[in-house]
Amino acid sequence: MSVPQDFPTLTEAAKVWARIAALSFGGPAGQIAVMHRILVEEKRWLGDGRFLHALNFCMLLPGPEAQQLATYIGWLMHGVRGALVAGLLFILPGVVAIMALSWIYALWGDVGFVSALFFGLKAAVLATVLQAVVRVGKRALKNPAMQTIAAASFVAIFAFSAPFPLIVAVAALVGWTGAKVGLAAFQGGGGHGSVGQTHIADAATLLGSEHGDLTGAKRVGAFRAGAVALILWLAPVAALVLLAPGSVFTDIATFFSKLAVLTFGGAYAVLAWVAQEAVGTYGWLQPGEMLDGLGMAETTPGPLIMVLQFVGFMGALREAGWAAPLLAGTLGGLLATWVTFAPCFAWIFLGAPFMERLRSNRALSAALSAVTAAVVGVILNLAIWFAVHVIWREVSRIEVGPLSLELPVLATLDLTAAALSVLALIAVFWLKLGMATVLLGAASLGLALHLVGLARTRLPPRNRGKQQSRPCGFRQTTRRPAPIADGQDVRVGPCCLSLSWAE
């Protein structure tokens, strides 16, 4: 088949992917809209039909759908090399930005003006998560069956702390079964509606409308690339399990690998599971710090799931027990990023050759619809969890049999945080301001409130608990360590810093 005269070279395509990466703010909805505008409306590389088909395929996969969509389209355009260029460029700006912000947060996060900015960002993040509930709900909850699934998933995770993977598995099974027995509520399929204002026919684009069978070479190349991606993902995990059992790096590798397999529904959905484990079980973060991390991801280019790099950074910083905590944090953050995104490439390469078969599979589409409905309940739980920890200073846990509820201590209401959250909600839902405007405005208000003495800018202590010896030279902290003393010397690489925590 002859290549169209204006078909872009890989170098030309790389410039386009770099442009998309630089503009990939605002979560998956905004990122997908940017890709549609540039790739479909402006460049005419593919039409609406192929674009939505690719998007629905990516929705079937665990991991960030926007990054996988870029990887898949890159594969359509230029094979394996195109997929690597598109996928890596999509995440590279976020990796650099989140790592830089993590260092700033670790070194100066308790400095008044820095913590004031994050104080304001928490309110904006709460508003954006609630906005995600509304957006996903409008798309997913089309009938009483889907509404019931959403309500059940919310109750399961909010009241009974049900694991996120179990919720996803049950929802998928319900959707699959409903389609197989012919229930009308599960016949509509999942996926997305139109993402553009005008329809661009596939036939009028570079890739055209033909589906056709893939050549044997292209199919084999995709499978080989998928196998390599699996090895690159699992080999470091296996090495850590064998050589450093029980270390924080092994915990990071195994935990985020599980997330990579089970993160259906995007970053907002998986954060509920991260909150359960990284905050509650491992003790890597405090609830407020999770909000800070999400604020970083919201204000930097790349997938929102890049917040996991911040989680890995803070976990290794606190628990590796190294004399160079920032080096440990950097390695922990990069490790979390590696085991999160390496599987994404594997799923695309291994699944892409079968894409056309998945298009007409109604049972899979119904399973996706049910999972998306369940994700609405999970995101709602996340929004409530964020609200409790943003607006109230203290929370209490009530446990009666299988029932486990985390409720605010009403007397500890933070009026300033509540007022700022209300303003953020008004900006998002009533004024319909853009995410960048809301985040910048909330951060500025947080700083202004700090200057007049109204903002709660003291973050939890950076270190928590006494250190215990561990195999292979690693140390772990218990869940309640003593804070670093004011003026205590902390070694960072070759330097020794005297840290003073500002009130």
Helical stretch tally:
17
In total, the number of strands is: 6
- Helix content percent band: 55-70%
Order of helices and strands: HHHHHHHHHHHHHHHEEHHEEEE
Count of discrete domains: 1
Largest sheet: 2 strands, antiparallel
Whole-angstrom Rg:
23 Å
**Percent of residues in β-strands:** 5-15%
What do you see in this structure?
The structure is a single chain. This protein is mostly helical. The protein has one domain (10-190, 215-391). 65% of the residues lie in helices and 5% in strands. It has helices at 10-22, 27-42, 48-59, 65-108, 112-140, 144-160, 164-180, 216-243, 248-262, 266-281, 287-298, 307-319, 325-351, 355-359, 362-391, 415-430, 435-451; strands at residues 395-400, 403-408, 467-469, 475-477, 489-492, 495-498. The protein has a two-stranded antiparallel ribbon with strand order 1-2. α5 runs antiparallel to α15. It is globular.
Structure summarized in a few sentences:
This protein is mainly alpha-helical and 503 residues long. The chain is 65% helix and 5% strand.
Give the SSE layout:
Layout lengths: L9 H13 L4 H16 L5 H12 L5 H44 L3 H29 L3 H17 L3 H17 L35 H28 L4 H15 L3 H16 L5 H12 L8 H13 L5 H27 L3 H5 L2 H30 L3 E6 L2 E6 L6 H16 L4 H17 L15 E3 L5 E3 L11 E4 L2 E4 L5
Antiparallel strand pairs: 1-2, 3-4, 5-6
Helix pairs in contact: 1-4, 2-4, 3-4, 4-12, 4-13, 5-11, 5-15, 5-16, 5-17, 6-15, 7-15, 8-9, 8-13, 9-12, 9-13, 10-15, 11-12, 12-13, 16-17
